[in-house]
């Protein structure tokens, strides 16, 4: 399935190394120089990341996602969105593995190719673990004031489910 | 961010008490500290590798070539990259890796791009926010994780959702970019009025 993308990294690696050698770059020296900086970045990221991931973990463990979902069920029923998939909408920004577990539950209970299963799969395929991404990216630059980063990212995440439900309905029916 | 770091734990504690999940929360705190270390360790090898390869590419003059390729689009979206070929190239490479689904490559490139955009301030610039927000929208052509999950659950054509995923991804990315731009403008206006 991924035969095309499997070629990219090997070809890119060999291509860069050969091209640099032709240009008479000291490849070994340059690589080690860059790699050392990569290592330093990783060490820099860790302290902030521990705090941010603990916050995410506390929220996930508190059951707040489930409470919120129960609260939003009437809205789902009103617009014809599968309420099982609403848990996924709320959980997805916090937890990648949690989202996969919820997908598996939905697929097992409603069956393959059901409306809820397709909506859940599209949600997973078209979104990222938003809070992880923001935590990792801003830990790297030691930024304390992220200003409007979280609101902007969540505006996209928390409106995409409406489009998701509508698009799956258009293509496959309810 | 400072407010969130207080609000999230307090809200979590209240929910945990109401839902009777205080023991899960206790375990969650300890688990996540360990998970942060695991995440950094799993990132460390590829981070070193890609930063090494990018440095080789930079010294060979490949970064300028890459930067030229998508320069109009990247410079249009990221205002501070006009005279910064390295940042332009890193952002281009980060977005390209996202689209191709090379998650392992896109994160180190994105982090390096963030550091290139940084001027040492503790406040995020508009371009940093835009880059982070674009990375929270999943722009990949083939949603491999979703396809694998569907196949594992007995779906006969896991990729029949492709057009739907594309539409929702493009919608989410567009909304992410537009809301970042609008919120950036609003926050500048507010700063001026103060």
The percentage of residues in β strands of chain A lies in under 5%
Mean pLDDT of chain A: 89
Radius of gyration of chain B, in Å, reads: 20 Å
**Any low-confidence stretches of chain A, pLDDT <50, length ≥5?**
none
Number of strands of chain A: 0
Report the structural category of chain A.
mainly alpha
Q: Hey, which two chains have the biggest interface?
A: A-B, 94 and 104 residues
**String of helices and strands of chain A:** HHHHHHHH
The figure for the number of domains of chain A is 1
On the 0-100 scale, what is the average pLDDT of chain B? 89
Q: Can you lay out the helices and strands and say which pair or pack?
A:
The complex is a heterodimer of chains A (174) and B (194).
Chain A (H helix, E strand, L loop, with lengths): L2 H20 L4 H35 L2 H16 L3 H9 L4 H15 L4 H11 L4 H11 L8 H24 L2
Chain B lengths: L1 H18 L2 H38 L2 H16 L7 H15 L3 H15 L8 H11 L7 H9 L9 H32 L1
Helix pairs in contact in B: 2-5, 3-4, 4-5, 6-8
Explain what the structure shows:
The complex is a heterodimer of chains A (174) and B (194). By secondary structure, chain A is an all-alpha fold. Chain A has one domain (46-172). Helices cover 81% and strands 0% of the residues of chain A. Chain A is built from 8 helices and no strands. In chain A, helix 3 (64-79) packs across helix 4. The model of chain A has no long low-confidence stretch (mean pLDDT 89). Helix content of chain B is 79%, strand content 0%. Chain B has helices spanning 2-19, 22-59, 62-77, 85-99, 103-117, 126-136, 144-152, 162-193. The longest helix of chain B has 38 residues, at 22-59.
């Amino acid at each position: 399935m991924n035969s095309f993308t499997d070629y990219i990294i090997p070809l890119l690696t060999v291509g860069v190394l050969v091209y640099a050698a032709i240009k008479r770059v000291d490849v070994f020296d340059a690589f080690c120089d860059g790699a050392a900086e990569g290592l330093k970045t990783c060490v820099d990221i860790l302290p902030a990341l521990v705090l941010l991931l603990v916050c995410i973990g506390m929220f996930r463990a508190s059951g707040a996602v489930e409470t919120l979902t129960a609260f939003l069920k009437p809205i789902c029923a009103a617009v014809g969105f599968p309420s099982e998939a609403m848990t996924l909408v709320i959980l997805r920004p916090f937890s990648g593995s949690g989202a996969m577990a919820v997908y598996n539950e939905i697929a097992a209970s409603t069956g393959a190719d059901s409306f809820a299963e397709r909506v859940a799969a599209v949600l997973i395929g078209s979104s990222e673990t938003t809070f992880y991404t923001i935590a990792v990216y801003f830990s790297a630059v030691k930024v304390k004031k992220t200003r409007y980063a979280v609101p902007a990212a969540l505006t996209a995440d928390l409106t995409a489910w409406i489009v998701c439900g509508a698009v799956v309905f258009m293509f496959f029916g309810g | 961010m400072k407010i969130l770091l207080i609000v999230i734990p307090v809200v979590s504690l209240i929910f945990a008490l109401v839902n009777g999940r205080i023991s899960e929360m206790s375990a969650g705190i300890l688990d996540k500290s360990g998970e942060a270390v695991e995440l950094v360790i799993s990132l460390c090898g590829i981070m070193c590798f890609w930063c090494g390869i990018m440095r080789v590419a930079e010294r060979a003059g490949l970064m300028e070539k890459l930067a030229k390729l998508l320069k109009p689009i990247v410079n249009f979206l990221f205002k501070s990259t006009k005279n910064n070929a390295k940042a332009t190239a890193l952002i281009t490479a980060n977005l390209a890796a996202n689209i191709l689904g090379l998650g392992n490559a896109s994160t180190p490139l994105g982090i390096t791009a963030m550091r290139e955009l940084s001027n040492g301030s503790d406040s995020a610039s508009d371009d940093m926010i835009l880059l982070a927000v674009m990375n929270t929208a999943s722009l990949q052509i083939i949603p491999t994780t979703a396809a694998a999950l569907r196949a594992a659950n007995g779906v006969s054509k896991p990729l029949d959702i492709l057009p739907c995923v594309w539409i929702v991804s493009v919608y989410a990315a567009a909304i992410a970019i537009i809301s970042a731009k609008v919120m950036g403008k609003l926050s500048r206006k507010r700063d001026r009025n103060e």
